Amino acid sequence: MDTTDTTPASQKKSFSTVFLIELWERFGFYGMQVLIVYFMIQQLGFADDRANLVWGACAALIYVSPAIGGWIGDKVLGTRRTMLAGAFVLALGYACMSVPTINTWFLFSALGVIVVGNGLFKSNAGNLVRKIFEGDDSKIDSAFTIYYMAVNVGAAASQLFTPWVKNYVNDVYGHGYGWHAAFAVCCFGLLLGLTNYLVMRHTMRHIGSEPDRHPADPRKIALVALGGLAAVAVSAAILQYENLARAFVLLAGLTVLVIFWILIGRGDRRERAGLMAALILVVQTVFFFVFYQQMSSSLALFALRNVDWNFAIFGTHLWTWSPGQFQALNPLWIMVLSPPLAWLYTKAGQHGRDLHIAAKFALGFVFVAVGFFTYSSAAWLAVNGKVTSWIMVWGYGFSSLGELLVSGLGLAMIARYVPARMSGFMMGAYFVSSGVSQYLGGLVANIASVPKGVTEPTRTLSIYTDLFFELGVTGVICTLIAFAVLPWMKRLGRIHAGEA
To answer: Domain boundary at 222, 240, 258, which?
Structure first.
């Protein structure tokens, strides 16, 4: 009797291996993200505006870097090797941040290491999932849904845990050691992921790109290492100098627009229609990520200064969070909302009533706007400058639903409207566009920069709520524009499908 594993079992084992290393990688990344703005302000003495811009520029670099890392995985080192190298480099970056003697340049260099590690890891981990189920389209959607859950499980766990570690170690040992202990936890998460991969590596031997099938070339490894060192130096310089960061973001944005312009000009009628539709949705996604970036900047500082960290119902105290832990509400809501939303998509599709993807984007902006109006209601509900933590719960709930309708469908939009021969390249352009908007989100967060020395909640409250109200109004404007272009989007869709 044949007792060898069936192909589906082999797929499950291979997918589990990538799923787990992705979970631990996201644990490390979001554990760092939840603390980084607080660290720069509270430990290094940065003003609000500088901390917001540094993190905005770093987020931009983090989103741009996978476009290069994906090419290295496909053409140079191999998808599997590049992903592992990325995980190791990320662990090194978090280890650098755990050094207690950290200063500004050392911090920027450590963040540069994280940028490089993310670039090597992110696109290649996702590419391995695609390769595992290649030729089995019926399972790809399901696999990526579960894979997205790995992102949110890792994010929620670390965003709840690392702030607690920081507070506990600071309380027991003092001297700010808690920050570095929390960053060390991020490093430990990556090491766990790497260890797990090494134990399960036999499940991945048949998965990878063409370079993975050949012995590693020491010269290529050396060239990638040298390029990585150069990228760390460039990233540190971009984070240090504001004008350089702005020039980088402007160049990246112009590059994406030029690429779209060239491709639209060269395509046939159907391709032009699809690319024009994709460009419109990419622009809408850029606006969405400006809103999204507030979670780790203006909303994080609002939670620090103007939110009562105690959860209570009818006067009964339930539990207390630290301000950083409120960011965990985003992945927690994503996990709650994803299954019913997927069910609604399926039921609507079965009855021929599925909404056009552009309509889903427009609805996404509706919920984003409601989320920011919820935050801004603190202006009327606060007592002595402090607002109930439930405002954050419901605000994050609406914002997360908006995220699922916009960001969650972004890559599906590229797959739907972009010709197959351009899909890999355009995926990179999509991430670059998202990176540009991360920096723009930092600029927007600076509208709510609190002057140094101002600590009274009654004085900081209106600074934040005014911004949140303005963002809510902006969300309404984005909604109106998205619905206004919907007929055009439908027409472009029909041309792309060859129906007009």
So the answer is: 240
Q: What are phi and psi of 319, to 5 degrees?
A: -160, 170
231/290 same-domain check = no
Give 105: exposed, middle or buried? Use CB within 10 Å, 0-12, 13-18, 19+. exposed
Residue 3 counted as domain residue: no
For residue 1, is it within any domain?
no
CATH number, domain containing residue 48: 1.20.1250.20
- Reported as a single tens digit per residue, the pLDDT across 270-298 is 888 888 888 887 888 888 889 999 999 99
Q: Which residue has the tokens 């930092």?
A: 442
- Helix residue ranges, H only, 39-173: 48-75, 79-97, 104-132, 137-173
User: How far is 276 from 264, CA to CA, in rounded Å?
Assistant: 7
Q: Does the pLDDT at position 420 exceed 80?
A: no
The stretch 370-392 carries a mean pLDDT of: 94
Average pLDDT, the chain: 86
* pLDDT of residue 96 exceeding 70: yes
User: What is the average per-residue pLDDT within 367-374?
Assistant: 96
**What's the farthest any 2 CA atoms get from each other in the chain?**
77
Rounded (10°) CA dihedral 355, 473, 324, 241: 110
Q: State whether 322 and 404 are in the same domain.
A: yes
- Count how many domains the chain has: 2
Domain assignment present for 2 = no
User: How does residue 3 score in pLDDT terms, banded at 50, 70 and 90?
Assistant: very low
Q: What is the DSSP letter of 354?
A: P
316-320 and 310-313 strand pairing? antiparallel
- Tell me the average pLDDT across 361-385: 93
Q: What whole-number distance in Å separates Cα of residue 357 and Cα of residue 407? A: 12
- Confidence band, pLDDT 50/70/90 cuts, at residue 9: very low
Does any domain span residue 475? yes
334 and 264 in a common domain:
yes
DSSP letters spanning 170-194: HHHH-TTHHHHHHHHHHHHHHHHHH
Check: CB of residue 48 under 8 Å from CB of residue 96: no
The gap between the terminal CA atoms of the chain, to the nearest Å, is 57
Range of the domain at 162: 8-240
Q: Decide which of 214, 240, 266 is a domain's last residue.
A: 240
